[in-house]
Give the backbone structure.
Amino acid sequence: MRSTLTRLLVCLGLVFAAAAAIGEPPKADPARPAIEKAGKAFADAFGRGDIAAVANMYAEDAIAFPPDSDMVKGRAAIEGLWKSFRDTGAKSMDFEVVDVVSSGNLAAETGIATLKVQPAGAGEATIKVKYVVVWKKKGATWQLFRDIWNNMPMPAAAAAAPAPTATPAPHH
């Protein structure tokens, strides 16, 4: 009887320990601070118009997947994509990192980017996009490896207004 009670108490202890562990918030991914820092550097470079610095954050074999467009392959082509977007009146962007999950030399980031765009002869517009980026670590540096984004739904009040004419931008 005593051994049965001991086993029961041990089992209950394990059940309560498992329940407590399940209720704990997930631990932050160790790559997240570096990914967030890279995103800030990307936004800063774009904001000051340093498109070469933006492109250099991509791996040589990177692929970007802009909305309603063909894939853009390679760092040089991606630089052209960003230059083209900047030329349409894109002024700045900010990133809200929702999640980062990494394994080995790859990390996946999801988030929301807020873009400020002012096409020639028009007022400034704010565009929000959602994105997923796959980062690849080369040495100690995280580089953009795959970059895909598309528009967030517009709020009901904004949906009634005419849409901005600028093409939504890619993420970092």
Q: What stands out?
A: The longest strand covers residues 90-103. Residues 57 and 143 are 5 Å apart (CA to CA). The chain has one domain: 30-160.
